[in-house]
Design goal:
Strand order of the largest sheet: 2-1-3-4-5-6
Distance between the termini: 37 Å
Pfam families: GerE, Response_reg
Largest sheet: 6 strands, parallel
Oligomer: single chain
InterPro entries: CheY-like_superfamily (IPR011006), NreC/VraR/RcsB-like_REC (IPR058245), Sig_transdc_resp-reg_C-effctor (IPR016032), Sig_transdc_resp-reg_receiver (IPR001789), Tscrpt_reg_LuxR_C (IPR000792), WalR-like (IPR039420)
Keywords: DNA-binding, Phosphoprotein, Transcription, Transcription regulation, Two-component regulatory system
Protein name: DNA-binding response regulator
CATH topology of the largest domain: Rossmann fold
Order of helices and strands: EHEHEHEHEHEHHHHH
Shape: globular
CATH class of the largest domain: Alpha Beta
GO molecular function, one term: DNA binding
Length: about 210
């Protein structure tokens, strides 16, 4: 089974490659450091399963996954993220990704997710499954204002409501502080709130935070 890895951190790519290369039945088809590189990697190497980081500079894992699934419907994508919070995991699973894990997952869990994905099944970490179950009743209410937000807006939102500073958000998302401030202003305007406290309260109300 051919597995490819997409992550903007070289150390993570190397670590995952070395660990998975020792697993019987798995072959590393290649690695990429961005969503743009992932498109080329899949086109050239045709892996069966792709491990995709969610937050990357440029084209993020969300957009890259949507493009890849449209171009290569047989490709199975397992998302890797530092967190299971927010609506992005649910959006990606609804869009058709085969799995979603946090980067704290064990090697055994990662291999299990890869094997299930390759067999046409889906794997979701127990932590995320619990979060999704709590979000579901609130997500079904009509007129969820968070549905109109882009991937990047949601990423900025989740960090803002965790009381991260603009500078810290900029560093984590590889953006300038000015760009983060612009996203913040856009979020407040789109969601009709005046400050970060009201933003967090609205996120709780609609199940974005649990």
């Amino acid at each position: 089974m051919r597995v490819a890895i997409v992550d903007d951190h070289n150390l993570i790519r190397l670590s995952l490659s070395r660990m998975l290369a020792d697993v019987p039945g798995l072959e590393i088809a290649g690695t990429a450091g961005s969503g743009e590189e992932a498109l080329q990697l899949v086109r050239e190497q045709q892996p069966h399963v792709l491990l995709m980081d969610l937050m990357m500079p440029g084209m993020g894992g969300h957009e890259a996954s949507l493009r890849l699934m449209k171009q290569w419907p047989a490709l199975r994508i397992v998302m890797l993220s530092v967190t299971e919070d927010g609506p992005l995991p649910g959006r990606l699973l609804q869009a058709g990704v085969a799995g979603y894990l946090t980067k704290g997952a064990s090697l055994d869990e990662l291999v299990l997710a890869i094997r299930r994905a390759a067999c046409g099944q889906r794997y979701v970490s127990p932590e995320l499954a619990q979060v999704l179950a709590l979000q579901q009743p609130q997500a079904e209410t009509a007129g969820n204002p968070f549905d109109c937000l882009s991937e990047r807006e949601l990423q900025v939102l989740m960090l803002l409501v965790k009381e991260k500073r603009v500078q810290d958000i900029a560093e984590q998302l590889y953006l300038s502080p000015k760009t983060v401030s612009t996203y913040r202003s856009r979020l407040l305007q789109k969601l009709g709130v005046d400050n970060d406290i009201a933003l967090a309260r609205l996120a709780l109300q609609h199940g974005v935070l649990v």
